[in-house]
Amino acid sequence: MRTHSRGAVERLVRLFLAAAAVPLLGVAGTSGARALADPPPFQTVMDWTPFPADAPQPGAVLADSPDRVGLALSGDPHPAAGAPYGYTRARLVSLDTGRPKSALFTVPTFSASPFAPFWMDEAQGLFIYAAQHGAAGPGTPGPTWDIVGISMRSGRHIAFDVQSRFTAEPIVGLAPTDDGRDVVLVASSDVHNFAYGGGIAIDRVSIAGLKRGTLEPRWQLPYRPAETFCPSLINTNDAPAVLAVADKVVLGCRQASAGYDAVVPSDSRTPPGVAVFSGLGNSTNPTVSSAFFPAPGNFNANAESFVDRADERLILTDEDAAGVGARVFDAGHQRYVGRVPLGSYPGLALVVDPKTGRFYVGTQDTSVGLALADLRPIVPTQGLSVALPWSGYFRSFNPVLGFDDVRRNVLVPVKEGGGIHVLVVHDAAPAYAPPAAVNPDAGALNVPEQPGITDSQRSAVAQAYGADYQVIGGLSNIAAGNGVPAGTNFLRQAEIVDATLTSDEATAQSILASEDQVTEQLRTCIGVTTQVPCVPVPTQVGMKPDFADLSACSDFGSGSTKGRQYKDTAYVSCDYATARTEAGSSFVSDGALFMTTSRSEPAAAPVQVSRSSTEATLRRAPGRGAVATTVKATADGISILGVVHIGSVSTEITLTTHGRPGTSSVKRTVAINDVSVAGKVLCANDCSTDVVQSAINTVQPGRVHVDFPDAQTTQSPGGTFVGVVQDPWYHAERVFDGEKVATDYAVPAMTITVTLDGVERTRLVVDLAAADATDSYRIYNLGKQAPFLPPLPGKVGRPAPLDIPGTLTASPVAPAAAPAVAQSGGFGAALANAARFLLGSPGRMLALLPVFLLLGVPVYLSARRRLLLELPLLSRDEGLS
After folding, report:
1. Helix or strand or coil: residue 529?
2. Which of 92, 473, 714, 783 has the lowest CB atom count within 10 Å?
3. Which of 58, 97, 94 is nearest to 74 (CA)?
4. Could you tell me if 297 and 304 are in contact, meaning their C-beta atoms sit under 8 angstroms apart?
5. Are 273 and 295 in contact (CB under 8 A)?
6. Helices (H) and strands (E) in the chain, counts
């Protein structure tokens, strides 16, 4: 492998940063042009020796940045037999010079295996951590876990040392509340959190009480969730992250395991993910509700968690065949919004800038070394890295990194040639800057339309589907030994692929149902051969999915085909002359949807939808009237694991706009009817989504999760734009973890996720009654183009594909900023250009389409024949005639 000297690396950095000065289209938060002589992104500005000469290994320097004081922790060269392994000595040092500001003093052991949970309270100049006090000897009280505070401002260094309510259970997590008045403690008998189980306990105590030397809990007793809900926390070497916001506590949890990623039956497996406990406020008798968000990835070994408190984000590092990555959970929106690749070595040193949300990682991976990324954008940036010499510094151990948030300096303990010291590394990379707000009304005229003087550009676009089945991870563990590769498989029913009405065209496409190519091939192979995949018969060579044929039409003003055109039960109608586009589709399965492979008997899918339908109408009123769009999607006869039954779920979107203030309107309605759980009627009509979600999510916690996604609704003040699309956090989650196409913006009324983990991690995601729509109407003077844009394309309004920043690379690169949503003007103008979906290992692409969910062929064939034969009847039933 080729290596570079530090000087060569710095020259490469300068050249790349200069080349990267060209702005990136549609990317939020890019920096301005940089001079060729700018410093590299990581610049060593000081080299300290803050530890005593007899220190056995580097300790840590943790910064109280406003006071310009650091706390240098180090170990005892001759620890007592049986004493906890960790740092027992400390001194204060200057953050500006590294010189001592105090003599060495003894502190309660700051554990180093794993590292103790801690928090630097910069407002009060307190370093707060959890420490174990062992028994003094036979007949004395057993070990206890205390909360220790070290003052960064007072000559009395130990500000407090107060016994907690935990004795046998170690305190493994500690975090401040968002008001800074309390600390939240998390205890677990699983000290190293190797997922042996045992559950957790949460307590909340007053900092003011600690400063008085007393324990003042906020609750009568610590809160203990069910052991099966959160068996263990996610961490191996570092303390698990805890995020406390208002009355919520957010933690990373992983399943109980009998060993290294042991196989657990899917019906008893608690998947890894994020647990959110709500109701844990100042009340002495908290009433707690909990929610669990499964995280795709391997968190059972060599996993860590850390937190970005400034942006309310929890970060989980996982390790799989693609390498190590940091998966980001946005606690405010309760969505996974991206994964930052971190190389191939699980041992990581991590620290987060508490003000900006930029995080830094050190690893021995020779392609990464020292790297940074920004967590503040909606999708975290993939960042930049400098491999040499940094990867060598992290080869022997993973230290606790410190951070000076005033000077933007990373404090890196290192051991070179037998000497231990701290490198002060300045982050010279440009800070992330959010995008400027976009005004969709800019450039449009606010005047009445006048023939011969003004004209208008118009666009109405809609999409919808009744039900979408997707197996993420494939069926290799559902039918063992079937030879089917892992991947993503889908079946989408009753879909309006696209319906458009613009100033120049009326076009539409709809389809009975569509599936991926692998699903198609395996379905047609059943009964032909047991070989996987089967040898295609001549008619299958080069085939594409042909579950059904598209119904399509287009009219560019030269004449339309009158009336509706059908393919199966899908219809379209395009009429430019009357400014009207229609589309719709319906699908009937009668609760007989099957999952199968060519080597297994069909099995009923855990989620059944008996019937679904969609319809969309896009029109412009006569006489230069307003543009209006109506989209409806419905799913009927829904069953979840045979326990939950729902009569219907539906979405309806209505938009109108006429290009002037006060002329636009937007409305989205979601309706759920006739819900029963385990034979008990929950509600009849207009059911509350909160009630339904709570009831279903308690049926099999961790295995079944129901979500009612919010939509981003935009209505511009000037009346030029209205729209309903996926909100950006949800869209990011769908692209990254749902493996959806980046141009799919339909918002489901309801999403059902069933975890099917076994040998492989697999989940079934079923989206019901999804729709999106955008309308645009812009008035302009004839003979003049709008001053701020070239001529607009025909289809205006839907967001561009999500732009996913690239991976960390061996050569230093300029920070690739991720898309973010403008503060005004809607989602459409804020996201940009092509999607790139890369994981950390070279050659590993995030799969977006194939592999499979299948219909049982006999049921499918008979159902399709019936649909074809009974088309007139179904058309009347669906109102499609």
Report:
1. coil
2. 783
3. 58
4. no
5. yes
6. 8, 47
